[in-house]
Amino acid sequence: GAGVSQSPSNKVTEKGKDVELRCDPISGHTALYWYRQSLGQGLEFLIYFQGNSAPDKSGLPSDRFSAERTGGSVSTLTIQRTQQEDSAVYLCASRPGQLDTEAFFGQGTRLTVV
Amino acid sequence: SQQGEEDPQALSIQEGENATMNCSYKTSINNLQWYRQNSGRGLVHLILIRSNEREKHSGRLRVTLDTSKKSSSLLITASRAADTASYFCATDAGYKLSFGAGTTVTVRA
């Protein structure tokens, strides 16, 4: 596709269940980011992938959160044993690996933990 | 942690007026970017200003950057109802894009 694609758009899950959120970046973009945005708040950095380098996981809030990027393309963010405070919009962005480039965002996944 | 901090948090203006919002940051950057978000979903890139630039224009947008004060401003001239959105600055320190809390702009008809 032409843009960053995220699925699902919306996800309602019961507390304690695991969820997987998917991000398809723009083809050829080596950098991929995950952010979390709670209602009315800014973007909280979660994790960053750049090519074959080790990801920067410094923003992951707990060990219940993990992310993978397979083949330098699709990425999956997994939240285990979901809690109500995990409810937020999860945004994915990608951009070329060169400096001074803009990021392209997907429409996000709205996660609601009930 | 959030690198940039926008000010004000919210802004309400009349259509046709100018809107100005500011961004302050803490560490050295390669560039600073501004994004717009409608309805709490995906962000759209507006403009990028490099650390060696002081001012940049794009249509009705004007961005300034003062690296000595670690601050930037975004000016939207002749605002329209369609400019109603949240605006975020993002600092780029080489690879990590860090966003502020944003400024919510409401343009009244």
Outline type of chain A: globular
Mean pLDDT of chain B: 93
The total count of helices of chain A amounts to 0
Rounded to an integer in angstroms, the radius of gyration calculated over CA atoms of chain A is 13 Å
Query: What is the assembly state of the chains in this entry?
Result: heterodimer
Give an overview of the whole structure.
The complex is a heterodimer of chains A (114) and B (109). With 114 residues, chain A is an all-beta fold. Chain A is built from no helices and 10 strands. In chain A, a hairpin with a 6-residue loop joins β4 (31-37) and β5. The relative contact order of chain A is 0.33. The mean pLDDT of chain A is 94. With 109 residues, chain B is mainly β. Chain B has strands spanning 5-7, 10-14, 19-24, 31-37, 43-50, 55-58, 61-66, 71-76, 85-92, 97-99, 103-108. Chains A and B meet through β4, β5, β8 and β9 of A and β4, β5, β9 and β10 of B.
Short description:
The complex is a heterodimer of chains A (114) and B (109). Chain A is mainly β and 114 residues long.
What key phrases describe this protein's structure?
heterodimer, A: 114 residues, mainly beta, 46% strand, B: 109 residues, 0% helix, globular
Topology (elements, then pairings):
The complex is a heterodimer of chains A (114) and B (109).
Chain A: E1 5-7, E2 10-13, E3 19-24, E4 31-37, E5 44-50, E6 65-69, E7 75-79, E8 88-95, E9 104-105, E10 109-113
Parallel strand pairs in A: 2-10
Antiparallel strand pairs in A: 1-3, 3-7, 4-5, 4-8, 6-7, 8-9, 8-10
Chain B: E1 5-7, E2 10-14, E3 19-24, E4 31-37, E5 43-50, E6 55-58, E7 61-66, E8 71-76, E9 85-92, E10 97-99, E11 103-108
Parallel strand pairs in B: 2-11
Antiparallel strand pairs in B: 1-3, 3-8, 4-5, 4-9, 6-7, 7-8, 9-10, 9-11
